[in-house]
Structures are given as C-alpha cells and as structure tokens.
Amino acid sequence: MAPQVTTEARRDAHAKHPAPVVLRGRALEPNRRIPLNLDWVEEVRVNTSAVERRAATHVMRRTVKKDNQAAWLLRAIACMDLTTLSGDDSVERVKRLCAKAQNPLQRQLVEGLGIEELHLTVGAVCVYHLFVETAVKALDGSGIPVAAVSAGFPAGLSPLAERVEEIRRSVEAGASEIDIVITRAHVFNGEWQALYDEIAAFKEACGAAHMKAILGTGDLMTLRNVARASWVAMMAGADFIKTSTGKEAVNATLPVSLTMVRAIRDYAERTGMAVGFKPAGGIRTAKQSLDWLALMKDELGRAWLEPSLFRFGASGMLGDIERQLEHHLTGRYSATYRHPIA
Description:
By secondary structure, the chain is an alpha/beta fold. It has 14 helices and twelve strands. It has a single domain (29-338), classed as Aldolase class I (TIM Barrel, Alpha-Beta Barrel), CATH 3.20.20. Strands 11-9-8-7-6-5-4-12 form an eight-stranded parallel β-sheet. A two-stranded antiparallel sheet has the order 1-2. Strand 5 (124-128), helix 7 and strand 6 (146-149) form a beta-alpha-beta unit. The radius of gyration is 19 Å and the shape is globular. 49% of the residues are buried. Residues 6-11 and 13-17 have low confidence and may be disordered.
C-alpha cells in the first residue's frame, strides 16, 4: 500500500483557519504606517559573523523525514508565489502558470497522498503588470490572488510619479498584491526620509492591495544596510518585506533572510504589528524550502508558516517538490521533464 500523509500532518500542511498571530504571548495586529523613527534606524547593529555562523549551522540542526517532510513540502507549496518574470513571457504562458497554480500537484500524487480534501493551491501568482488582467481572468473563482511587480521593477529607477501610476494601474487591473522595488541609492546614501516617503507613497497607491517591499538585498552591500532598509520599509507600512527581485547577481540567502526576519521580530515586539517575509530568487530545491520554513518557525513561530505572513518567490522549486513527493510515494525519483511548470 502506498504511504499517505497522516491526518495530523495533512491538517498542518494546509490549515484553512490560521491561528491568531501571536509572538511571545502577545497578539499582533496587521502592520500600518507609523512615523519614521530615525533613532530606531540609527541604532541598528548586525553582528555579521554571528549571523553567518547561525545561518551555516541552521541547515544542520534538524531534518524532517517521511510523512512530516511531505507535510512540510505541502506547506511550502501553499506559501509559494508561483512566478513568471521573463522577457519572453506571453499570454499563453501566464494562462498555463495559472492552471498549474490551481492544481500544483499531479492528480496521481494528490490521490496517492490522500490530500484531495485540502484543495491545495499556491499562495499567489506573480506576473508583470502587462499580464495582470490575463491572470485575474484565468484564476477567477479560485481564490488565488494575483501579485504584480510594479514601481519600475526590477531597477526601480524610473521617475517616482510613473512608478506610483504603475501601481495604481495594476490595482485597477485586478492585482490584490503589489511587489514594489525600492531605490537602493537611498540606502547607500543614508537617505532614510526619502526612502520612507517613497515606500509610503507606494503603499498609498496600493489602496487595499497588500504591498511587498523588495529591498534588492544583493545590491545593499552589508547586513546592516539590509536591516536598516527593513525597518524603514516596515515603518512606512509594508505588509511584507522581500529580499530580491530575482534579477540581482545575489538573491535570497539565509544570512540576509535571518537579518530581515529578526528585524520583523524586533519590530513586532516594539509596535505590536506583524509584517510578512518573502525570500525570492535562487530558491530552487525542496531541501531549500525546508531550510526557510524551519527558519521562520524557529525565529518567529507557527503563525509565520501561513501564506498571510510568508511566501516563497519561486517557480522552479515546485517541480523539485513534486519529485520529492513522488519519491515519498514510490521510492523512485522521476525525471524533471515529467513535472512541467508552464
């Protein structure tokens, strides 16, 4: 008989009623904009050596196996922003991606794992502004949100008014999540008020849509810059902070992620507000997804394993997760080409 995911693991893999957001016994509210506190920014310190040691040991501290591993991989799918941001994107590719988002696992895997009742989907579909309407139509009735990369993605160097207008147009087209990109020069120059004002303008243009602030951490040079930019983005009202566009030479890494996650934790303790986290770029394997999920659980707790507070910016990773789940069922690894994305 083929192994199935246990009832307890299935329930944890894709909970329909997330637990309240609580950190160290304190109930948290959604983030909202607060005045820029330059004292908080200036006092930020990061022990780079300690962060790098913690990240290096994190991947060796524990493993999950068998049913528990399968459940964690299902959780990774539920927290995934299935993404296509290529120069050769097309309407048909986006439609195929949306079909995959609604049925991320092949039917035989769903039946073999015994997870039909989960109605498993990804967390969101992320596309360029040009394809927002296509994605919204393709996902109609699924409950899967559409995220648009806006505000001059990926460089963020177009005029501010144009970036704000692009956000508004994406929201009007039906995007319920907006991934904006900051001006990195504001960080290099210590122009924290300018960075705050920019992100606040983007947040206002988003209206009711959730905003993820992409910091472009591969360009920020130091972990202290990463932490300071994280604080400014959160004070300006970001619902999520995100590592990268996926276009930088260096994208999501565990040291950068640990720095940002700890900034989220400290911010929550000071303000009573919860901010989400999205690592993006370079996360391609099922094993990597487990590393990031464990990081969130260790540093922030169970509430940050929900799509409302954690997302992977990935697409290629889904194929490897499918292969690992097939191995869980059959004891054999299938060829990669048997698990196409779009």
